[in-house]
Amino acid sequence: MSPLHCAPSPVLYAASPDDGRGDRGQIAGELQLKAALLDRLGEAALAWELGGSSAIVYFGAGAEQLYGFPARDAVGRSSHELLRTAPPAPLAQIEAALLRDGLWDGELRRTTRDGREILVESRLRLVEGVERRRLVLETGRESTAKRRAEEALRDSEACFRNMADHAPVMSWMTGTDGGCSYASRSWLDFSGQTESAALGTGWLEAVHPEDRSAAEEAFLRAHERRDAYRMDFRVRRRDGVYRWCIDSAAPRLGPGGEFLGYVGSIIDITERKEAELQLQEREEGLRRAIMETPFPIMIHAEDGQVVCVNRAWTDISGYTHEQIPTVTAWYDRAYGATGAAVRARVASLFELKAASDENELTIITASGARRTWVFSAAPLGKDAAGRRLLVSIAHDITERKRAGDAWEATLREADQNKDAFLAMLAHELRNPLGPIRNAVEILRSTGMEQPSLRRACGVIERQVAHMARLVDDLLDVSRVARGRIQLRKERCDLSRLVRQTAEDYRSTLEASGLELQLELPAEPLWVSGDPTRLSQAVSNVLHNANKFTDAGGRVTVALSATSDGSAAIRVRDTGIGVAPATLARMFEPFSQAERSLDRNRGGLGLGLALVKGLVELHGGAASAESAGVGHGTEIALRLPLARGPEASPERAAPPPRPDSRPAGAVRSLRVLIIEDNEDAAEMLQVLLTMNGHQVEVALSGVAGVEAARSFRPEVILCDIGLPGGMDGCGVARALKALEESADVAPSLMIALTGYGQERDQRRVREAGFDMHFIKPIDPGSLQSLLASVATRA
After folding, report:
1. pLDDT at residue 237, rounded to an integer
2. 597-618: per-residue pLDDT in tens?
C-alpha cells in the first residue's frame, strides 16, 4: 500500500503568537492526518472542544460542503451556536456519554448557512489533545432524505394497514426474512388466529395439512427469487370449515429499490373453486364420453392444433394422433388434392353461432381406402390460452351409401317400371275407349229416333269421358308428384279463365240438378300461369262439387283479390260435407270422403290431389273447409297475382272445344288408318266414311307403309303401339323416306296413342308426326281438323 499523501488541510486556526490561540494550533498537528482521511472518505468532518464554548478547532472540506460555511469562518466558533444544533437529547447527556464511553452515535438536527434544516447521522469520538485537552472528532452524513423516506414509508404502511384492516380481502406483509410481519384484521377474523399467532410462520397453522408444505415451499421459492407468488390452498375458517382461498403476493420495495419483503392478499374462492372442480369433472366425463363415442370426433384450435381426437376417428381412418397433430396434417393425408378447399370451408366455421350443415366428404384412410364421412361442426368456445375451438363430428356412411346406391338403383328401376306400367295401363285402357266413342257417334249419325237408344248413347258417352278422365288424372298425379309436368306459363286474366271454365261446366251441373252461381269481379285479375292447367284445376274442383252434392243443391264459384297479393278462387257447395278427420287428408292421393260398398260417388280420389299439385306448381296453395257432415264444403285455391306492366298477348282460358260437326259440306279426303285394334280401326273407318272421306285400313306398320305407297293418302291416322317389328314411329320415319322416291307425301300425319307422357310426345314429333292425339280422340275434334285440312287443300 502506498503512503497516504494529504493535501494541505483547511486552516484550523488563523492565529498569531499573540492572539491567545497558539496552544490550539498545536492540536491541529495531532488531528491533521485523521481529518484528511475522513475528508477523503466523503464524511463531513469537524472537531470541537468538549465542554466550555465547544469551539471548533477543525472544519474539513466535507463539512464546508454539507453546512455551507467556509473553514475560516467556522474555526473558533461554537459548533452548537454556528450550526444551531438541536440534539435528540440534552447536550449534557451527550457529553456525559462521551466522557463515560468515549463515543456517541445519533441524529442531530442542524441548520446550514442558507437556513435549511437538515438531519445528520453523526458519530462523535472523544480524543486527547495536547496538554490532555479533550476534543470531539465528529463525522456525519446528511440523512434528511432517508429520514423523510422512512417516515413516508411508515406513514404509507400505517395507511396500508388501516386500509387492509377494513378491506373485504385478507392482507398480509412479510419482512426481508420471509416471516409474516403483519396480518390484517380480516385474516384474524376469518381464521380465528390472534395477531401474535399469525406472525412469522404461524399463519401456516391455519392452512389445511395436505396443502401446508406445498404452500410454504411455493412461497419460499418465490421469496428466494424475489418473484411474484400465487397459489390456491385450503384455509381453516374460525368455525373449523376449510375454505378454498387464493393467495397472491408481490415483492415490496423501498425508495431505493431495496427489497423489503412481500405484500399479499388472500381471497375466499370456495364457490368458484367448487365450480371449477365440477367443470373439471364434467370436462373429464366429456373427454371420456368423446373417447368412447362410436362416431369420429375431433376438437382443434384455430391455430390448427388438434386438441383431441377420439378412438373412433383413429380406428376408422387408420391414422394415429401422432400422425395428425394438426388439422393441416389431416387435410393433407385424408383429402389429398381437395384439402385446400376443405381447409377454407372449415376455417369459416369458427364464425358460426350454431352447428353447421352436414357435409358429405370422401376421405382417404391410412391404408389408401376411400370412405364416405358426413361431417358437421360447431364452435366450442375458447380454451385456457384464449384460442377458439371447433368440434367436428363425423358419421361413417360408407356401407350405408353403398347399400343406398344399390337401393337407389333399385328405386330408379322400380320408378321406371312404374312409369312403363302406368303408360301401358293408360294405353290399354284408352284403346277400347276409342271404338266405343266412335260407335256412339256412328249411332247418333244414323238419325236414331228411339229415346231409349239416345239415352243409351248418352250413358255410353258419359262413361267413356269419365273413364278417360280417370286415366288422365292417374297419369297427371304421377307426373306432378315427380315434378315432371312442364308448365307453359303466360300472363292471363284469372277472372275470364274462371268464368269460362265454370260456364263450360254449367251444363254438367244443371244435368245433375244443381244450380251454379258466379261471384266474379268485373275487372281483370292477372296471374302468371298455364291456362290449360289452371282451367284443369278449377274443373276438377267443380267435378268434385258435382259428385258430392245432391240434386237441388247449389255450387258457388267466387274470385277475389286478397290483402297479401294473392287471388283466391273459392268453390262452395251445399253437398254432403266433410268430417274433420277426413278434411285433413282431402288432398292426398286416393283419399275419399266415403268408401261405402255401393260406390255411388265413384272415382279414384285423385282429382283434388292433382288440384293441389297443379296449384303448388304455380306457387300457390290449396285448402278445404267444412262445418262437418251435411254442411257442405269450400275448396280455396290461392295463386300469386302477377306484378309489373301488362304484357301481350293475354289469354284467359284454353280455346273452347270445336263443334262436333263443321258447318257445310267439305271436300272428301283420302285417309289411311294404321291401327292393330280391328274394332277401333273399323269404327273409325265407318265414322270417317259417313263423313264423306275415302278411308283405308292397315292393321300393322309394314302393311301401313305398303298401303301408303298404293293409296297415296292425304291424311294418315297411325297408332304408335303396332305389332310386327315396326311401331308407329317407324312408320313415320319410313314414310318420310318415301316422300321423294315414291311420291308419298301426306298433308297431315297424326299419331293416335294411349301413351301421353311428355317423352312420348317428344318421340312422336322427332319421328316426323305433325300432331299427337291421345285416345280416345273426340270425333267432333277430328272432324273439324279434317275439315280444315280439306279447306287448305
Report:
1. 94
2. 333 455 556 678 888 888 888 8
* C-alpha to C-alpha distance for 140 and 790, rounded to whole angstroms: 145
**Average pLDDT of span 575-579:** 87
Alpha-carbon distances of 120 from 86, 123, 144, 641, 745, rounded to whole Å:
11, 9, 7, 104, 139
| Cα–Cα distance list, 525 to 98, 398, 496, 616, 638 (Å) | 126, 54, 9, 19, 12
C-alpha cell at 28: 491541529
CB-CB contact of 229 with 248 (8 Å): yes
Q: Which of 125, 111, 126, 119 is nearest to 142 (CA)?
A: 119
Determine the 3-state secondary structure of 148 from DSSP: helix
Stated as kind and residue range, the H or E segment containing 321 is none
Q: What are phi and psi of 426, to 5 degrees?
A: -60, -45
Residue with cell 266433410: 578
Residue with cell 460555511: 69
**CA nearest neighbour of 589 among 603, 572, 573, 574:** 603
Please state the rounded mean pLDDT for residues 539-545.
90
Quick count: other Cβ atoms within 10 Å of Cβ 224?
A: 9
Query: What's 716-757 look like in SS3?
Result: EEEECCCCCCCCHHHHHHHHHHHHHHCCCCCCEEEEEECCCC
What gap in Å lies between CA 105 and CA 125, rounded to an integer? 9
Q: What b/e string do you get for 741-768 counting C-beta neighbours within 10 Å, with b at 16 or more?
A: eeebebebbbbbbbbbbeebbebbeebb
Which helix (H) or strand (E) segment is 789 a member of? helix 779-792
Decide if 616 contacts 459 (C-beta within 8 A): no
Cα distance between residue 502 and residue 542, in whole Å: 8
Q: Could you tell me the sign of the dihedral formed by the alpha carbons of 658, 664, 669, 671, in that order?
A: positive
Do residues 525 and 641 lie in contact, with contact meaning Cβ atoms separated by under 8 Å?
yes
- Which residues, in sequence order, are bridge partners of residue 516? 555
Alpha helix (H) residue ranges in 548-676 = 580-583, 607-617
Comparing C-alpha atoms, which of 133, 137, 126 is closest to residue 44? 137
What is the chain's percent helix, strand, coil content, to nearest 5? 45, 25, 30
Distances (CA, A) of 585 to 55, 603, 631, 698: 128, 16, 18, 49
Query: Does residue 649 have a cis peptide bond before it, meaning omega lies within 30 degrees of 0?
Result: yes
**Distance in angstroms (rounded) separating the CA atoms of residues 761 and 673:** 19
Q: Which long-range contacts (CB under 8 A, 24 or more apart) does 109-118 make?
A: 109/85, 110/67, 110/83, 110/84, 110/85, 110/86, 111/83, 111/84, 112/66, 112/67, 112/68, 113/67, 113/68, 113/69, 114/68, 118/66, 118/142, 118/144
Q: Are 730 and 715 in contact (CB under 8 A)?
A: no
Cβ–Cβ under 8 Å, residues 499 and 505 = no
The DSSP call for residue 186 is: H
From residue 763, how far is each of 375, 426, 488, 620, 728 by CA, in Å? 44, 17, 19, 32, 11
The confidence band for 4, taking pLDDT boundaries of 50, 70 and 90, is very low
Lowest mean pLDDT across 205-209, 493-497, 759-763 = 759-763
580-595 tens-digit pLDDT: 877 777 777 666 655 4
CB neighbours of 555 closer than 8 A, spacing ≥ 6?
A: 509, 514, 515, 516, 517, 542, 545, 546, 549, 571, 572, 573, 574
pTM of the predicted structure, to 2 decimals: 0.37
Mean pLDDT lowest among 199-208, 265-274, 442-451:
442-451
The residue that leads in pLDDT, 402 or 198, is: 198
Please state, in angstroms and rounded to a whole number, the distance separating the CA atoms of residues 173 and 182.
Answer: 5
For residues 524 and 496, is the Cβ–Cβ distance under 8 A?
Answer: yes
Q: How far is CA 750 from CA 192, 683, 724, 729, 753, in A?
A: 111, 17, 20, 11, 10
Q: What is the pLDDT of residues 130-187, one digit of tens each?
A: 566 788 999 988 888 777 777 776 776 777 666 666 667 888 999 999 999 989 888 9
